[in-house]
Records
---
Amino acid sequence: MKALIANNLVKYFKTPDPFEVLKNLTFSIEKGEFVSIIGKSGSGKSTLLYLLSTMDTDYNGTIEINGTMVTGKTQNELAAFRNEHIGFVFQFHYLLPEFTLLDNVMLPALKLNRKSKNEIQNRAVELLNMLDLKGLEMKKASNISGGQAQRVAIARALINEPTVIMGDEPTGNLDSKNTQIVFDIFKELAHENGQTIITVTHDDDFAAKSDRIIELKDGQIILQ
Ligand SMILES: Nc1ncnc2c1ncn2[C@@H]1O[C@H](COP(=O)(O)OP(=O)(O)OP(=O)(O)O)[C@@H](O)[C@H]1O
């Protein structure tokens, strides 16, 4: 089953001058695949991820995620779709610094409001354990290391059991040890849980070890 199908994606920026940043991209990604999107600075990686994540709706072409056509949905429908299907991990983790790690992880699930607070808390504790953060649940997010914070951000991205996890430079801020830890977590999520990982990276080693590389050059796919 396909986790994502992108057909004829075209994206223009109108300012300062009209400029075609993504030029007719067509590709698909399988469920449980761990894909790295690479390319030189300015090649269009972040722009593409922004489209795939349904955050940017101003494009031509179509995007289907897990059999759902997301192109054409309203902003409210997309917000609900994202909360349920997509987990995000960014270079900077955007945790709420004054909240505990546990609260940070629980928040998206409380927002989704599908499970009881107790169930959510149990799952959050489980995820923090899985990410080797046992015992730190009640620590404030402002008081942990960058590598730990990135793992909390991953736990938060996983709390609603997303089918697709999207990362924009998820290891961009990490040393090699923590980069390896994050890589191993992604690999396990893809290969053992069947979750699909789509991540933009500048790290060629990271990309080479993932299942597949999609390489952009000047807004076109030159390798997939
Ligand atoms: N909001 C915008 N308005 C106009 N041009 C933009 C906008 N955002 C990005 N661009 C341009 O689109 C091109 C692609 O940008 P994008 O950020 O997608 O590249 P990238 O491959 O992710 O780069 P990097 O590796 O540096 O993050 C660049 O030339 C950039 O200057």
---
Amino acid sequence: MTDRDTALAIAGLDKSYGRTQVVGGITLDVAPGERVALLGHNGAGKSTLIKLILGLIRASQGSIRVAGHAPGSAAARAATAYLPEQVAFHRALTGREQLTMFARLAGEHPKTVAPLLERVGLADAADRRIGTYSKGMRQRLGLAQALLGRRRVALLDEPTSGLDPISRHDLYAVIDEMAANGTALLIASHALTELEARTDRIAIMAKGRLVADDSLGNLARAAALPTRIRLTAREGSAEAVQAELGGDRVNGRAVELHCTTEQKMAQLARISGLGDAVRDVEMVPPSLEDLYRHYCAEVRQ
Ligand SMILES: Nc1ncnc2c1ncn2[C@@H]1O[C@H](COP(=O)(O)OP(=O)(O)OP(=O)(O)O)[C@@H](O)[C@H]1O
């Protein structure tokens, strides 16, 4: 990847407070249009990394380039959208007034405000005071702010926390749209299940280090975690099925097996060899949560 292709480029990044290193040896690139999930336990260093990228604190060592610019510089700030976990607004302003103020600060024409409010589903509430908004509505307003000016890099900190399922879905639709327009997105979150289907790459931090950085598929292959195969046996056949295939009996008629990617086809052939003793087969690949546990456990040892 060349510098030009990389919207966000982080190399050899360290941050210490006194003698305590809180972030160490981080090298991470995010390309235009890429959605990268940033995962990590409480205190892993995610917020510190985001603050370093925003230029709010300075690195002890290493480099960060935001759209080719130094973090915190006017050019980097103009290229960056940031959605904090707790979005703070003037409660006395209406949504429209607040967003118009942000648009002016961002050098955008105020006429961009109405379509943005529409886009995030706040058109009807645009002229109500923010003090009357629910958490989800404030989060939507924050997202509208992040959408101002088509930034090259977007940093979203727990963007879906406290949102109901429909609002989450809408939020990811906006994230997808930003990515399709070429924005590089770094999304810090603990919501593993929803990130699984919604990001291109997973970066996992543990104790200040980056312990994984790849697509879900590649991480799963490298971790070689087993796929679960759950069989529902025909009535009275569970024992025979277990005797033939091994595995564990799970409540009455189900038998659960574990196998590697390489063993999967051979295992399926054995299952179909049992004919109508098996009524149904369900395959459950390792989840992001399984992978997360796996990569974090490596550091804990
Ligand atoms: N100003 C500071 N001085 C000393 N230590 C700090 C400072 N700021 C953060 N830390 C430490 O750095 C580590 C990383 O904190 P950080 O807030 O980046 O974690 P996080 O991954 O964002 O956690 P969470 O998921 O809980 O938000 C923690 O151990 C924290 O105590």
---
Amino acid sequence: MPPQRRNRDFGWLLIVCAGLLPLVLGILCTAIEARHTVHQQQITTANSLLAQAERMSDSAWDMITELRQFHYQPCSAIEDKLQREGNLNAYFRSIGKLEGDNVTCSSAYGMNPGSLSEMMLRHPPVTGKAWWSISIRGTFGVPNRPAVIFVRQLPDGEGFWAVIDGQYLMDFMRALGESRGYRMTMRFNDGAPITSGPAEQLPETYLKSEPWRAESSRYPISVEVVVPPSELLKAWRQALFIFLPMAAIFSILLMILTANWLRRRISWRDEIRRAMRNRQFSVHYQPVYSMAAQHCNGVEALLRWHLPNGDTIRPDIFISAAEEEGMIVPLTRHLLELMAEDIQSWQVEPGFHIGLNLAAEHLQHPEFVADIQLFARRVQNKKLQITLELTERSLIHDGEDVARKLRLLQLQGMKVAIDDFGTGHCSLSYLQTFPLDYLKIDRGFINAIERLDGETPVLDAIINLAHKLQLEVLGEGVETSLQFQYLQQRGVVFIQGYYYAWPMDNDRLRAWLNEQGQQPLLAEESHESELHHS
Ligand SMILES: Nc1nc2c(ncn2[C@@H]2O[C@@H]3COP(=O)(O)O[C@H]4[C@@H](O)[C@H](n5cnc6c(=O)[nH]c(N)nc65)O[C@@H]4COP(=O)(O)O[C@H]3[C@H]2O)c(=O)[nH]1
């Protein structure tokens, strides 16, 4: 499959993925949100149930405290009063008195209706406590309806009891959760369950939510709330209903952005190719001043891109794009061709320097040496000093291999410079790895110069370092007389910048070299006219 085709297919895949991403994320988030909502509802329901059960327990214990007034009184004397108390207070099925395990008096059945076990339809729990309560599946009189019995036993064997009808609790549960299909279970003291909701086991599906259990801090009451899958599904559907339109908008936006990004990527590559074909690139040359020779002894080649409408694209933009799009090698080869053509028109002394910028990808390319050698052969009649400028902007991975190639080219008479020194992450390691001849100080450090007799610590340190390593130093971006003099005083041998000359096209360079190329640069003079002229 040709690479172009493969890229396009990959692009479609990327657009589809970008479109799906918000949808998938949305579905996941809403599922989590639905679970959270349902869980909160479970907690709220359980807490409401507990609160109601606690209120009923409070009533029951209050009633038992009230019954204390009938202590030592025979059932015949209190029967009517008991009946009235039992009937007039909410929640109660019956209330009464105890003697040991025997029920001696009941608001429902009068005197001596039987034992406590017979009334509860089970043995009383062994709690060892004078106050206890337990949920039961029914009572002697109403065996099929759950209830809760509250008992207080006095040390003298007498006691009081109250039975709350479970119907009140079941009604409350129904009101809370019947419409939502909740299954709710309440137990007092691990007694019989009082339940409401569907009795069947919920199917084991992903949508099943965990039962929520809660206990009262005041009484031995526990509740459990189970939510059916349909509730979770409903909550999910509601969340999706709100979220899906937003997700759809996000999907469309993301697809448009991805498509634009892909188009831009493809268009940079295509545009650079087209621009090379249509000769929209040209080379500008910026003169370099030699302090020793006191005249221009070389130039740096800087690529320019002129659009047919007269606009230009900044080199830092199209060079970065070419590096990212894998176009820097063809572009540099194009630069070398343009330079070779221009150089044929030059009238310069042998040894005149021509510096050219090289990107890391090209240095690592297997045909790098051949490319440079071809260029050198094409301009060999001019006997130029070719300087290869490495920049730290993009990292050179295979340092040893690149160093070997550079050494080979050095043996054939070329020089190597490190460009924009100090701005990257690996300035010092480059000094150690590569066979360098020149160090070009970035204009950021030159801009820091404030006074001729003062210090510029970092700049001074770089200059000293270069001298120690026996590298020749070039100051880049020199714009003022002060900067020029400062560098001159500190033994910087080459100067490049607007103060000396701006980058210019080939025709203007030839004229400039003729008129000003041999003139010394004097710091005291005003160079305004010279700069504008160039
Ligand atoms: N403010 C200021 N700027 C000054 C002064 N003197 C020169 N300059 C600018 O500083 C840049 C020097 O080039 P660079 O550091 O190699 O930085 C270059 C270089 O890294 C890259 N570049 C340019 N042409 C090529 C090329 O053919 N190949 C590669 N790989 N990179 C290139 O693009 C960068 C920017 O290039 P340009 O825009 O041409 O910008 C040039 C030049 O116009 C000055 O006194 N003041």
---
Amino acid sequence: MTPSPALSDPFHCGCETEPVPGAPVSVDVALRQGLELAEPVAELERLPLGKAHGRVLGETVRAETPLPLFDNSAMDGYAIRLADLAGEGPWRLPVAGRVAAGDAGNGPVPAGSVLRIFTGAPIPPGCEAVVMQEMTQPEGGTIRLDRRPEPGENIRRSGEDLAAGAEVMPAGRRIGPRAAALLASTGCGEVIVRRRIRVAFFSTGSELRAPGTPLAPGQIWNANRYHLQGALDLPWAEAMDMGAVADRPDRLREALEEASRNADLVVSTGGVSVGEEDHMPAVLRAAGGTVHVMKVAMKPGKPLLIGRIGKALYLGLPGNPVSAFVTWHVIGARIAEALAGLAEGAPRRIIVRAGFDRVRQPGRCEFLPARLGSYDGHGTRTVEIATSEVSHRVALLAQADGLLLVPSETDRIQRGDMLEFLPFHEG
Ligand SMILES: Nc1nc2c(c(=O)[nH]1)N[C@H]1C(S)=C(S)[C@@H](COP(=O)(O)OP(=O)(O)OC[C@H]3O[C@@H](n4cnc5c(N)ncnc54)[C@H](O)[C@@H]3O)O[C@H]1N2
Ligand code: MOO
């Protein structure tokens, strides 16, 4: 599959250089390789529009009718014929009838008269303009009019928003609130959507316990499980939460195999680094899977496995909670969107100004939890970071406004430098 431009929009984090075997690949290369593996789910479903919110449109929709459907009034006022306004104003014209939204509106405006008309009502034959009622003075069954309206004034023309036969929405669009309003306006009572992708996920780590349960020395509460539960609470995904699995190769293999039988995408956290307790690369291979990416030149998130097992795509995110979040946010979510057939979704990026000075070691692209500060005189916001050692700093992450993107080749950031920033959508 050729990834769509939006999904593969590069981070310019070193993709210009040729990958060296065994060395970390750039974020862009990792993303591209993941997207190449992500064949969109093929099955389609027909759903009533009211049950399709947030789903991914499976077919391009074309308009069978124009939008607006018929010429109609943009204002509450009076439908007039311009020929009735002879000479200089003011003019006085009798009100011969009324037409409201929902009326069939077949009767013409009688010559020498006006019709009372309301917003959304069909424009009666002969009517060349609608005069807002505020521009008229009613006087005993007549109106007085001081100004000659322009031809077509306050008339919303049929087809001016969308012509009959035009594309309403392309396949791959998420049916968000705006899309739903348009589909409804063009009469789409049912839509064809892609089936939900199935995502199985588990956390690895013998130290992990569920929050709310007591801990023995050395144990911690599982954060990544709850991050992924939230991140996968999506209308176009069916999440299968497999809980936590101890750092034992046999258990991990069982979990991986079970997940891959049921899911399009398997996500695990932890166990992807180089320690003796980091089993996932070996477990993936032992289970017949293939490894496509092992390490990415990013911080946090250097150890990141992208592979395949059976029919499923596999993502082994690092265990450190901020590393797991960043790798999911920047790479994992893009891959999930591509599997779901979504043609959009790369995180929005804005330009900010550094509010700090920092000298750094080039070579890895950084995605640092950061807070936005005040605006400069040109409407650009300053950004502040607390530290670059962030991989375990969940509090810093939760308090951040987004991720500051530091390109891999950067060796120095000076106050006032312009940088890219990925704002978080949620509050
Ligand atoms: N010798 C090296 N050690 C490490 C390297 C390295 O290159 N050489 N990389 C470091 C980096 S960077 C990261 S990131 C971590 C990633 O390691 P793993 O993915 O194997 O993760 P674990 O070792 O299983 O866990 C790391 C850390 O995160 C905690 N953790 C794990 N899962 C959870 C969870 N579900 N909720 C909360 N916290 C979790 C775990 O307890 C560890 O503290 O490796 C570095 N080491
Ligand atoms: O790369 Mo690790 O993910 O920094 O913490």
